[in-house]
Amino acid sequence: MATNRSDTSRGLCLAGAAKRVRMESTTNIPLRHLRMVVVQTIHDLLSVAYRTHFSDVAFVEGVALMMVASAIASAQMNGEPFTVLGLAKHLGMPSRTLRRRLDLLESKDLLVRQDGRLHMNGAMASDAAILDMRRIIIDAADALRRSRRTGTSRRGGQIAHVQKRR
After folding, report:
1. ∠ CA 47-51-56 to the nearest 5 degrees?
2. pLDDT tens track of the chain, all 166 residues?
3. Distance from first CA to last CA of the chain, Å, rounded?
4. Positive or negative, the Cα torsion across 14, 17, 21, 22?
5. How far apart are CA 70 and CA 88, in angstroms?
6. Tell me, what DSSP letter sits at residue 147?
7. Which of 87, 118, 96 is nearest to 105 (CA)?
8. Quick one: CA torsion of 102, 104, 108, 112, rounded to 10 degrees?
9. Of these four, 6, 9, 78, 110, which has the most CB atoms within 10 Å of its CB?
């Protein structure tokens, strides 16, 4: 029943019930430079974390483990460590999948379970990895600071890009 067809008159590609807008030229992307800095920063941070702890699993699973670990660490640093059920709800992840990932984090000595709460090992990331991540973030902040500041405003129901001047 799901057939693929193109509707070029509207620039849409229909795949079953899903609609996707055809890609435009990359030169017409609003805030392109800022988006590139953000995308590259996320990629670089994920790569460092993956190489540090999860290179023995598929990258996608490593990213999922990083999301679990970072949620646990954030809650722990805020003084409100998660329970397994609370974390499953927070992440929108099935409990069975989460438990499998928690077991893997525990087997790597990254996770400690204490009094029904989840805690990350204090030495979760090596000093070298933390310093690499810090450098990535500072470089990104510098690149964003040097870039042209732009924003959007509404004019007549349409979005118009305007340049902000310092």
Report:
1. 120
2. 444 444 433 333 334 434 455 555 566 788 888 899 999 999 999 999 899 889 999 999 999 999 999 999 999 999 999 999 999 999 999 999 999 999 999 999 999 999 999 999 876 667 888 899 999 999 999 999 887 654 443 333 333 344 444 4
3. 56
4. negative
5. 13
6. S
7. 118
8. 20
9. 110
Q: What tokens does 60 get?
A: 């996608």
Phi-psi region of 116 (alpha: psi -120 to 50; beta: other; left: phi over 0): left
CB 72 within 8 A of CB 82: yes
CA proximity to 72, closest of 102, 94, 93: 102
pTM higher than the cut 0.90: no
Per-domain boundaries in the chain: 32-149
As a CATH number, domain 32-149 is 1.10.10.10
Report residue 99 as tokens: 């438990």
Q: Within 10 Å of residue 98's Cβ, how many Cβ atoms?
A: 20
C-alpha span between 67 and 46 (Å, rounded): 10
